[in-house]
Amino acid sequence: MASHVIICHTSEEHAARLAEALIGARVATSAQVSIGFGRANELAGQFGTIDAFLIDSRLIEKCLERGAAAPVKRRESPRRIVLAPSVPNSLVIQTAQAGLDDVIDMSVPPDVLLASLKDSLGGRRNIMSHPIWRSIESPRDVHTIASPYRDAIDREIVSMISAGLTDEEISHGVYLSCQTVRNRISRMLERSGARNRTHLASIHIHDQYSNLDLVLPCSTGDSRQSALQTS
C-alpha cells in the first residue's frame, strides 16, 4: 500500500518536484508540501492519516530545538525521515539525537534511493541501522560503570558532541573555556570507558534512542526516479 506523506522542505520548488516524483514512482499516494514546519500540523489535520514526514536535512536544527513542531516528536506515528544530499556521521548522530527515524542519502542512484525509501517507510531500516553504530562498540562494562556525567553541563557537552560541534563551539554554548571543556570530556571518557569522543557520543545516543518504535508500510514504483535526487 502506498503512503500519504508530507514533505517539510526549505525550497518550495524542490519539494514540489520531489512530491511529483514520489507520486509518479508510486512511492506515495499523495505528497503535500510544507515550507519548513509551518503548515505541517495543518496538513496533517486536513488529511487525517499521514504515514510519513520527509524532512529536509537543513531543518535538523529546528528538530533539535526544545518544543519543536509536533511532527518531529519521538514515538509517534507517522515516521520522520530526513532527506540529505550526503550523510556524514555527524548528520546520523544529529538525526538520532533529534529522535527522528531515518536519514536517506539523496545522492545515490535512483533505484538505490527508491529501495532505501521503500525499506525506511516499511520499517525494514531505521537510523540505528546505519553502519556508524556497528563500527563503534560500547565498552564491555558499560552497564556496570558509574554515570560518566558529573552534572547537567557534562550532559550538555556530550549532547553537543553528538551534534558534531567542535570544542570551541561547545565552549561558547556552555560559557566555559575550551580547556575546561576538554578537561570535562577527558574525565567523561575515563568514567565511561569510551575510546574517544565519537565513542562517547555513540553511547549517549544509544542510551537515549535505542528504543525507537519504527513501523510504516509502503510500496514503490519505478517512474520519474531521477527527480527524487533533488533535495
Structure described in brief:
By secondary structure, the protein is α/β, with parallel strands linked by helices. The chain contains 10 helices and 5 strands, in the order βαβαβαβαβαααααα.
Walk me through the structure:
The structure is a single chain. With 231 residues, the protein is of the alpha/beta class. It folds into 2 domains: 140 residues, Response regulator (Rossmann fold, 3-Layer(aba) Sandwich), CATH 3.40.50.2300; 58 residues, Orthogonal Bundle (Arc Repressor Mutant, subunit A), CATH 1.10.10. Helix content is 43%, strand content 13%. The protein is built from 10 helices and 5 strands; from the N terminus they run βαβαβαβαβαααααα. It has a 5-stranded parallel β-sheet, with helices on both faces. The longest helix is centred in the C-terminal third of the chain and has 15 residues. It is elongated, with a radius of gyration of 19 Å. The C terminus is likely disordered.
Biggest sheet architecture: 5 strands, parallel
User: Would you count the extended β strands for me?
Assistant: 5
CATH architecture of the largest domain: 3-Layer(aba) Sandwich
* Helix-strand string: EHEHEHEHEHHHHHH
- Give the integer mean of the pLDDT values: 75
Radius of gyration: 19 Å
Instruction: Please mark out the parts with pLDDT under 50 across 5 or more consecutive residues, or reply none.
Output: 66-76, 139-145, 211-231
**Strand share of the residues?**
5-15%
Distance between the termini: 25 Å
Into which percent range does the helicity of residues fall? Answer: 40-55%
| CATH hierarchy class name of the largest domain | Alpha Beta
Shape: elongated
Q: In what order do the strands lie side by side in the largest sheet? A: 2-1-3-4-5
CATH names the topology of the largest domain as: Rossmann fold
Question: Helix count, per DSSP?
Answer: 10
Could you name the CATH homologous superfamily of the largest domain?
Response regulator
- The tally of domains stands at 2
Class derived from helix and strand content: alpha/beta
